[in-house]
Automatic annotation (TrEMBL):
The keyword Signal applies. Residues 1-21 form the signal peptide. This is Lipoprotein. Keywords: Signal.
Length: 133
């Protein structure tokens, strides 16, 4: 019986020392910037995002700029709502608010890329921002 107790003790010690890989915040990799032509663009540091845009996302002109903007208003609002509820949603994942002004004219390119950023988050992390789920 004594060896069994030692094995259990060692397993408990090992399990308490084990570390989990941290969940990276999705917004740690997202920023809005103006380029030389004074147009807004999104910089996403996750290399899989560019792969997603080129191979999975629908073409930019598939939806109108108004469609993308309306979806982005909703998604950003839901995202920022989750950031403000750290006891309900993982604060490591939803760590930063997205500073998006719906009255600003960001242009089709940014609206498209932001919309697809949320689609990418859904694709990669299985995070559904529709209707607070």
């Amino acid at each position: 019986m004594k060896p069994f107790a030692y094995i259990i003790t060692i397993l408990l010690i090992l399990s308490s020392c084990a570390t989990q890989a941290p969940i990276k915040s999705a917004t740690d990799t997202l920023s809005f910037e103006k380029n030389e032509e004074e147009e807004y663009d999104i910089i996403v540091l996750d290399t899989e995002y560019n792969m997603y845009l080129m191979s999975i996302a629908k073409p930019m002109n598939f939806y109108s700029e108004e469609y993308y903007k309306n979806k982005n208003i909703f998604y950003v609002s839901e995202w920022n709502s989750r950031v403000s509820q750290p006891f309900r949603f993982d604060p490591n994942f939803y760590s930063m608010r997205i500073d998006y002004n719906p009255t600003e004219n960001y242009g089709l390119k940014l609206e498209y890329k932001l919309y697809n950023y949320f689609q990418f988050i859904n694709w990669k992390y299985k995070v559904n921002l529709d209707f607070g789920r």
